[in-house]
C-alpha cells in the first residue's frame, strides 16, 4: 500500500519577511552609494580623456560639453611632434626610477619581513615597532635631512637620488611579515635539515610563495613612484633628467593658455598607470585579501 504524503508550505513569519525587506533595502542603499562613488571617481578621468580630443575654445566654453563636437587627434600630434618634449626620453627616466625602486623595495621588504616573521632575537619587537612608527611620520618632516644626505653623497640632480631615500619601505615590511608568518615553520626546518643555507631557504622556499603580496606591493610602489612630484621637484634641476610629473608641470607653465594641450599631456602621464592596473588588478585584490585574512 502506497502512502502519499503532501507537503504543506509553511507561511513565512512576519519578522522573517521584515528582515528580508531590511536586507534588500540595505543592499539597495549600498549599491546607490557605490554607484555615486563610481560616478564621482570616473567623471574627472572621462573628462580629461575626452577633452584631449577637443579644441581649447570648446574646453573653456560655458556651459561645458562632455563629448567633443568634432573629434580630432591634433593635440596628440602636436605633443608627439614637439621637439622640445622628447616623450620617450622622459618616459625612460620615469620607468628607470619606478622599476629601480620597485625592485629594491620588493627585495628589502621581503627579506626584512622574512627575518621579523621567522627569527627571534633581542630587541625584535622594539625594532619592528620603530619601523611601524615611521609610517606616521610625514615625508615633509624627513625631506630636508634626506636632501642633505643626497648632497653629501653627490646625488643631487641624479635619478638615483630619487631611488636611494626609498630603499626601505615600512609598509612593505609589515605586509610581507604578515604573509610570511603563515608559512609553516616545519617547511623551513626540513630545508635546514637538508643542508640549505638561510638565504637559499629565503630564495627557494619563501619567495615563490609570495607572488600575490609581492605583486600588490610592486604595483603600489610603481604607482606611487610614477606619480611622485614633490621629491623629484626638489632633487632634479636639469631638464634632461625630469620625470613625467615634472614634465607635465613644465608643459602646463609653457602652454597654460592652451588647456587642450595640457590635458592631452596629462593623458600621456596617466595611461601607463592605467595599463598596469588593468593587467594586474587581480594580484592587488588577491594580495591584500590574503594578507587581510592573516
Describe this structure in words.
The chain is an all-alpha fold. Helix content is 69%, strand content 0%.
How is this structure best summarized?
With 294 residues, this protein is mainly α. It is 69% helix and 0% strand.
Secondary-structure blueprint:
Elements: H1 14-51, H2 56-59, H3 74-80, H4 87-118, H5 124-133, H6 139-153, H7 170-180, H8 185-193, H9 198-206, H10 211-226, H11 230-235, H12 244-254, H13 259-293
Largest β sheet strand count, sense and barrel closure: none
Radius of gyration: 27 Å
Strand content: under 5%
Given the structure, what is the number of helices? 13
pLDDT average, as an integer? Answer: 83
Helix and strand pattern: HHHHHHHHHHHHH
Low-confidence stretches: 1-7
Instruction: State the shape.
Output: globular
Give the tally of β-strands.
Answer: 0
Amino acid at each position: 500500500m502506497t502512502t502519499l504524503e503532501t507537503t504543506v508550505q509553511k507561511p513565512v513569519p512576519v519578522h522573517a519577511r521584515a528582515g528580508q525587506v531590511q536586507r534588500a533595502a540595505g543592499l539597495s542603499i549600498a549599491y546607490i552609494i557605490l554607484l555615486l562613488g563610481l560616478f564621482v571617481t570616473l567623471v574627472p578621468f572621462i573628462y580629461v580623456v575626452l577633452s584631449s580630443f577637443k579644441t581649447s575654445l570648446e574646453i573653456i566654453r560655458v556651459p561645458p560639453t562632455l563629448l567633443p563636437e568634432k573629434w580630432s587627434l591634433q593635440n596628440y600630434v602636436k605633443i608627439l611632434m614637439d621637439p622640445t618634449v622628447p616623450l620617450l626620453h622622459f618616459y625612460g627616466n620615469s620607468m628607470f626610477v619606478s622599476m629601480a625602486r620597485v625592485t629594491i623595495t620588493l627585495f628589502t621588504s621581503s627579506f626584512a619581513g622574512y627575518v621579523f616573521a621567522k627569527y627571534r632575537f633581542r630587541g625584535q619587537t622594539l625594532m619592528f615597532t620603530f619601523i611601524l612608527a615611521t609610517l606616521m611620520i610625514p615625508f615633509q618632516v624627513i625631506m630636508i635631512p634626506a636632501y642633505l644626505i643626497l648632497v653629501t653623497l653627490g646625488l643631487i640632480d641624479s635619478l638615483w637620488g630619487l631611488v636611494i631615500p626609498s630603499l626601505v619601505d615600512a609598509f612593505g615590511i609589515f605586509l610581507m611579515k604578515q604573509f610570511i608568518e603563515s608559512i609553516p615553520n616545519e617547511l623551513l626546518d626540513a630545508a635546514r635539515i637538508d643542508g640549505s643555507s638561510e638565504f637559499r631557504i629565503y630564495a627557494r622556499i619563501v619567495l615563490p610563495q609570495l607572488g600575490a603580496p609581492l605583486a600588490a606591493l610592486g604595483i603600489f610602489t610603481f604607482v606611487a613612484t610614477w606619480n611622485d612630484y614633490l621629491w623629484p621637484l626638489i632633487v632634479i634641476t636639469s631638464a634632461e633628467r625630469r620625470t613625467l610629473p615634472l614634465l607635465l608641470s613644465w608643459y602646463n607653465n609653457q602652454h597654460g593658455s592652451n588647456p587642450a594641450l595640457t590635458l592631452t599631456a596629462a593623458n600621456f602621464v596617466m595611461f601607463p598607470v592605467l595599463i598596469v592596473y588593468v593587467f594586474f588588478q587581480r594580484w592587488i585584490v588577491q594580495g591584500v585579501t590574503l594578507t587581510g585574512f592573516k
